[in-house]
């Protein structure tokens, strides 16, 4: 979904107010963050939240390669045991996740399994709103980290998104985080090179063409945002308020460029305690195996390099990275060698302060809920742990008194 359509939906549905979504945008720049250097407690931890927009397929990310039900349900989409990056004698990582597998061997990667929420919703809009507001039972109007910001001093620079539009995640009742778009400095060339690398000639296979189209979406979103800022109409931005959805979502700059700015801020000792970054394109209804591998390869390179860079400084060793998507995919592959919207999936936690390993119960691939995995870990358990152990905050006021925790995952 493109960013303009997303913004309109959020304002219209009441998930976050127009003023909150507009906060930051063009009002903050990297220099505003760097101006706070030295203003934070040197012992404070930092949370980096990575959103994978589109519904990443958890079963082909953390792969139950030893389960016959996995191979029966996916046939051509399944990875063979010799292909995966093994975690143990039952689970392995996607072959594209070599960097993350290296972090696993260093005990800096935790995999939280079966994460979801009660009465799951398969709509991209609704499910992402639930994850970002942390209110599964009723439509939320504030983000869970926006509510944290309300009680943490309300300075927008405490919670920063390196995206053109502020996600509802960082919108509070009385305050909102800062949106600091990634500029063309260093990012444009990388984006153009990435697009060129995946440009597919007419005789290329459909999967490669789909991967190229996904990255072309990033350029289209960039042009649209520029048009919005300059007050000129963008393609597809008609009077009826409907823009074509790309199902890409996420930041329109490469994840590596976003994480590079996070690293600069952490190393400079800025006051920010939370950073939000994203990667889109995971709505893999067709030709999934190759497309997801392309996306996970970009994700793996960006994230493993970031975690390695963070391990070299005291401030960086206090960074915890959490990775999530709005839902997983259905267990059985569809007729187009893709997967449709599902429910429970994995959350990945990374960093020096993470106790690597497997957490939560592995969902059954045969005891399903209408073809979907049953949730075994509520995402609020993870959020409460991050609030308490990373942001030094009482999770109660933020999560409506939620008492669950994820035991032992953080040092």
UniProtKB/TrEMBL annotation:
Species this protein is from: Plantactinospora siamensis
Keywords: Signal
Name of one Pfam family that matches: DUF1501
Source organism superkingdom: Bacteria
The keyword Signal appears for this protein: yes
Disordered: annotated span: 229-253
InterPro entries per UniProt: DUF1501, TAT_signal
Keyword hit for Signal: yes
Matching PROSITE patterns: TAT
Highest classification ranks of the organism: Bacteria, Bacillati, Actinomycetota, Actinomycetes, Micromonosporales
Signal peptide: 1-29
Protein name per Swiss-Prot or TrEMBL: DUF1501 domain-containing protein
